[in-house]
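Need tokens for this chain, all 271 residues.
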Amino acid sequence: RACKVVGEMCNLLAMTYLQQEDFAMVLELLKKAEILTERDNAGRAVTFNNLACYYRRQGKLHAALQYLQKALKIENKLDQVDNPADTYLNTCAVLSQLGRHQSALEHAQQALILLQEELSRVLGPMADGNEAPKADRIAVLAIAYHNVGVEYEFLKKFDQSLQSYRKGVEVSERFLGPDHAITVTLRNSCIAARRAIMVRDPQARLQNLESKGRKGRGGGGGTRRAKPTEGQEALMSPRPDAGAAEQVEGATKAEQGWVTRAVASPAPNQN
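Here are the structure tokens for all 271 residues:
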């Protein structure tokens, strides 16, 4: 029990130091957590996820992927996993950066299935309306649709790509609101994808998202838009022409607790 508690604290502190970019301390804490969670499979999976975040920030994508694959292997054997979709989305993002887009798509689709199951009581046809969906999980669902759209775009399946981009925007607008940081970012990403796809495929069927976006932005009144949290910024993927700073703007946090996970695929280049 003591090892589990200390392991959780090491993970919590490691993610705090990751936000501060104190990478030496992050690695030291996570290596301690790896030892402390030898008999705690759930905690070990979280530690592996966080090590993947660390190595991804360091640009060591193959190491990040190895840790994510270890985390998935553990989680697939557990009876109960908190937010199991997030590891699949993390893996999708890393695979996408490695150029393995078919595999990235499959992981994003698996994440969607898990999220739909997770949220079925509050979003599905059986929802009774008595329980409001958690905003952070809705945000991850919207990002999952976005990641599927990104991977379809890489694979040049443009109709499916746009459908998924739009679905992410619809979910975010409906449950988070038109002025939420995630909604704005996903809307902008979708509009940019429409324009890029129009250049590549002039015959693509495009819906009038721009007018929807103007309507959504106008309905916000004087509401001040909240800035995404540091952990949220780790999740979002940029459009092809976004700069490095824009690539993380508007992302959402997978967990509000002590684990931060990066869950977004980088969007394809327009060239």
